[in-house]
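In this supplementary section we document a worked example of the pipeline. Step one takes a protein sequence of length 183 as its only input; no multiple sequence alignment statistics are reported here. Step two produces a three-dimensional model, which step three serialises into structure tokens for compact storage. The input and output of this example are shown verbatim.
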Amino acid sequence: MKRLILISLIGGLIFINLSSCKKVLAAVYGGTDVTVPQFQLILPQIYSVPPGEIPLGSYSYYINLDSSVRASTGGVFGANAVNSVKIKKVTIKITNPDAYDNLANIDSARVTLQSSSNNNPLQLFTIGFPATYDDTYDYTTSNSPELLPYVKGNIIIYNVFGKLRTPTNKPLGLTVDVTLRAN
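The serialised model returned by step three reads:
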């Protein structure tokens, strides 16, 4: 009888301390990095600098958060284990830089996000580029907006805007790599 009471008491304490599946998953699932498909864009040759920000295009991609999490955890966890998704790192690279045409031609870039699960535009980030030669720029943030309501869908849409600093002598190829952190 004492043994039954002791087992019931221990079981009750465990249940109270870990009262929801989300708490159990959070305690076990440490999170994973999710790489979003790279997107590429061509900035056409710009003969004169527009006075403000210009749209550089919208880019749609398929994403499956459940598959990404399962692949990163050996199939142990899926999207239901995820409580938060935020930007970890963005890498912007000019694919055809030279001394006159590189990231220094671009003053800033801004990216918004929409998806099949949330059509309200969310500002992901705004980046200011240095005025000196650079062909690659890594951006990391500690205050990314919450993306989980957006990546629950299967289509994500990036809207890219830019402000130029100087004219370009040729079209510039750019690639953007995004790594998300799912916790």
